[in-house]
Amino acid sequence: TAALMVREGFADALIAGASHTTKDVAKAVIYCIGPQEGKSVSSCFIIDTGNEKYGYKGKFIFADCGVIVEPTAEQLAGIAVDSGMLFQKIFSTSPHIAFLSYSTYGSAGGPSVERVRRAVEIVKEIQPELMVDGELQADAAIVPEVAFRKCPDSPVAGRANVLIFPDLNSGNICYKLVDKLMEAVAVGPIFLGTARPASDLSRGCEVEEIVLDAAVISIMAQFQNEEVRS
């Protein structure tokens, strides 16, 4: 019912999941609200690690952690663009987008590495103003000292704040490890590429998580409404 209200314009955004599975919420979002034209629906988490040494004052966007199992190069590029735009809106600062891999600048090979490299090329073609680089290992992406040794000429390495994972396995596992081991604050999953803003909640969510999700989704809805009016 809530997703239909959003689709028909009776509500600006959707937050669900406190009493429903992610699978059910994703189905409602994809089939009722639907994707934006030419986009695939994916998802991200806004992560506050509390460690201001990394990212943007300890804050990151991780994507995709919840929807596309094995994204194509084109889908990875779309995830990166959507994640970067969201980061800009939420934090009012420039995103530094790193495409993660087990390889840094050709240190290893394989199909997933080639897919990541192609995704980087696509983003540079369609959004040349975005600060993006890859393929980068996680330490090279966020640790300045490692970045200096492995890829000193990278515009992103050592200061990435948007991390694009090569597949759902790596993204979902990483976000859960960071969330639990670091006791980080994780907001989401927030759906990307949808016709209207939408977010999922854990069935074990606390009041604080609901409030944070609502704040992010409200900002997204406000930006979207302003874009429509303009």
How helix-rich are the residues, as a percent range? 40-55%
What low-confidence regions span 5 or more consecutive residues with pLDDT below 50?
none
Report the sheet with the most strands, covering strand number, pairing sense and barrel closure.
6 strands, mixed
Q: Overall pLDDT, averaged?
A: 91
Q: Could you give the count of β-strands?
A: 8
- Biggest sheet, spatial arrangement of strands: 5-4-6-3-2-7
Question: Topology as H/E string?
Answer: HEHEEHEHEHHEHEEH
Instruction: Work out the strand percent.
Output: 15-25%
In the CATH hierarchy, what is the class of the largest domain? Answer: Alpha Beta
Rg, nearest Å: 17 Å
Structural class: alpha/beta
CATH topology of the largest domain: Rossmann fold
End-to-end Cα distance, whole Å, is 29 Å
Q: What does this protein structure show overall?
A:
The chain is built from eight helices and eight strands. By secondary structure, the chain is an alpha/beta fold. It has two domains: 1-34 and 194-229, Rossmann fold; 40-188, Rossmann fold (3-Layer(aba) Sandwich), CATH 3.40.50.10750. Strands 5-4-6-3-2-7 form a six-stranded mixed β-sheet, with helices on both faces. Helix 3 packs across helix 4 (111-126). The protein is globular and about 55 Å long. The model has no long low-confidence stretch (mean pLDDT 91).
